[in-house]
Amino acid sequence: MKVFILGGDGFCGWPTSLHLSNLGHEVVIIDNLSRRNIDNELGAASLTPILPIDKRLAAWRELTGKDIGFYNLNLATEYERFLNVLERERPDAVVHFAEQRAAPYSMKSPRHKRYTVDNNVSATHNVLCAVVESGQDVHLAHLGTMGVYGYGTAGMKIPEGYLDVEVATETGERVQQQILYPTNPGSVYHMTKTQDQLLFAFYNKNDGVRVTDLHQGIVWGTNTSETSRDERLINRFDYDGDYGTVLNRFLMQAAVGYPLTVHGTGGQTRAFIHIQDTVRCIELALTNPPAAGERVRILNQMTETHKVRDLAQLVAKLTGGEVAMVPNPRKESAENDLYVKNDLFLDMGLNPTTLSEGLLLEVAEVAKKYASRADLSKIPATSLWTKAQRAGVPELEPTR
Ligand code: USQ
User: Fold this and answer.
1) Average of pLDDT values for 238-251?
2) Is the minimum distance from the CB of 107 to ligand 1 under 6 angstroms?
3) N or C: less crowded end of the chain, CB within 10 Å?
4) Alpha-carbon separation of residue 284 from 23, 221, 288, 301 (angstroms)
5) Residues 108, 113, 193, 307: which is the catalytic one?
6) What is the C-alpha to C-alpha distance for residues 139 and 129, in angstroms, rounded to an integer?
7) CA distances (Å), 2 to each of 37, 62, 116, in order?
């Protein structure tokens, strides 16, 4: 099939593009290279030496004989151009990764909050609007987040998108319904993903757009079987306080001899998925599209849950690193449990790549190999969630 990868130059988008191209799909990347520009803004860079997009694509062509198309296009602002590209290329499916994805970045300042909302919500809306306007039956697969649910569950497993509810009517009858699981975002970034859900629900109901929304957990790992074929295809590795995610940060910190930065008590439980499973899940989502007239299909794209402090201890034990408990820069529950359903992907044939010593050490090895590129001053997380935190006033932690 012909597939657009919106955000195909990013951490998840690049390996997904190669994976689908390798499987024989015709891939076209649409990306405005904003992630590289944000690196410049923050004075940070991927730990791994990622090549410019044209060199990456040329290397893939040289190694495999396969062409991946590329348009440098801003989805949030260039609606007409995107519509033209859609009408010209006529893809069967569009995978939408093209959003600002870091919670700390989205909380840095009013400018960062507003950019994240303007960019993410407009990009998603423009894509939906253009799909309808083109009159094409395109399957849209979107990268959502586990964070739309919040991280608490009243003891039950978080279902895949929809919650069974029973309401009493005025005549005393009890009616069963399924509703979108109530959203409970923990950052401006996560809030934009909850808004995406409403956009999908509306365009699906009104125009019959076929949508799969993938609520992904925290991705760890760096390379996939395609990106590890040649150093010129290497995937990015974020470790800075804004874009680095927790497990990769711990592995990188251990590799450069920096104490592992556990926020607060480390009692936060989160869902995780390895990058190799991310690309496999996208493949499965594309080969199992929703039928015409089906409501938005929501899948939980995660394979396991862990507490942050347990991960720190595991990494410290494996690598001999030290753990440092640091004040939490975020406003989030200090301790939570998390139970999540992921039956839909398992039923489609996902064989989860769960945390193993071998895989953890492989990431630590990548980090060690490029340790000389690390700027240790970029490691601390400095984005504070509230004005009170910025003023140094202690706050009550959120109870939900
Ligand atoms: N944390 C630490 N130490 C660190 C970094 C993070 O203790 O050095 C803690 C955070 O306080 C938080 C948890 O680890 O409790 C996760 O933080 P994270 O930066 O790994 O992940 P998060 O901000 O939630 O965002 C990431 C991706 C985002 C995706 C989300 C999935 O950046 O795009 O949507 O994971 S989820 O977490 O399931 O919502």
Assistant:
1) 98
2) no
3) C
4) 12, 20, 6, 11
5) 193
6) 13
7) 28, 21, 29
Query: 117: Cβ–Cβ under 8 A, 6 or more apart, which residues?
Result: 188, 191, 192
Q: Which amino acid is at 289?
A: P
Average pLDDT, the chain: 96
Angle at 248 between CA 242 and CA 250, to 5 degrees: 90
Phi, psi (5° rounding) for residue 280?
A: -65, -40
Whether 239 is a known active-site residue: answer: no
Q: Return the exposure string of 226-259: e unless at least 16 CB atoms fall within 10 Å of the residue's CB, then b.
A: bbebeebbbbbbbbbbbbbbbbbbbbbbbbbebb
Q: Which residues of 307-324 are buried (b: 16+ CB within 10 A; e: fewer)?
A: bbbebbbbbbeebebebe
- pLDDT tens-digit readout, 288-335: 999 999 999 999 999 999 999 999 999 999 999 999 999 999 999 999
**Fold (CATH) for 2-391:** Rossmann fold (3.40.50)
Report CA 256 to chain centroid distance, whole Å: 25
Amino acid at 179: I
Helix ranges restricted to H, 30-185: 34-42, 53-64, 79-89, 103-106, 110-134
For residue 5 and ligand 1, the question of a CB distance below 6 A is answered with no
User: Could you say which of 189, 203, 243, 370 is catalytic?
Assistant: 189
Spatial CA neighbour of 115 closest among 126, 105, 128: 105
Cα angle vertex 382, ends 381, 383, to 5°? 100
Concerning whether 386 is annotated as a catalytic residue, the answer is no
| 249 within ligand 1 shell (Cβ under 6 A) | yes
Structure tokens at 310: 């347990």
User: Which residue shows structure tokens 């739309």?
Assistant: 148
- Is 55 an active-site residue? no
pLDDT at 364: 93
Which residue lies with its CA nearest to atom 4 of ligand 1? 246
